[in-house]
Amino acid sequence: MAINFDEFKAGAKDLFDKAAAKANEAIDYSRTQLDRGQLRSKIKEEYCKLGKICYDMHEVGDDRTGEMKQVIGEIKQLKTKLEEADAAVNAKKTKECKFCGTANDATSEYCTKCGEKL
Ligand SMILES: [Zn+2]
Q1: Residue 103 Cα, ligand 1 centroid: separation in angstroms?
Q2: Which burial class, exposed, middle or buried, applies to 29 when counting CB atoms under 10 A from its CB (0-12, 13-18, 19+)?
Q3: By three-state DSSP, how is residue 113 classified?
Q4: CA–centroid distance, residue 42 to ligand 1 (Å)
Q5: 103-105 vs 94-96, strand pairing mode
Q6: Which of 5, 49, 70, 88 has the lowest CB atom count within 10 Å?
Q7: φ/ψ (deg, to 5) at 109
Q8: 104 CA distance to ligand 1 centroid (A)?
């Protein structure tokens, strides 16, 4: 029995390419998820910083408006990035679980992580 190795290799390569593409997609996707979480906490941090500057300013009486403007600029940039990340996720048509926040396939009925109905 002769095995057609070229055909076998082609088939294997095709499978491998498909698996690699899927893996890349998953990595891209989780990276987006991670970025959104990081962006949200970074925005929170910046708001805290802003509040602290504001507090100090009134407590001590120094004018730190410049610093505040800088932080506000930072927040604006982060918000834009978050909006972009949100849009990217929405473009993938996912359903976010109301219970655990996991992004599921738009066609899924139940959350892949916690099993709640979407
Ligand atoms: Zn869930």
Answers
A1: 8
A2: middle
A3: coil
A4: 24
A5: antiparallel
A6: 5
A7: -95, -35
A8: 8
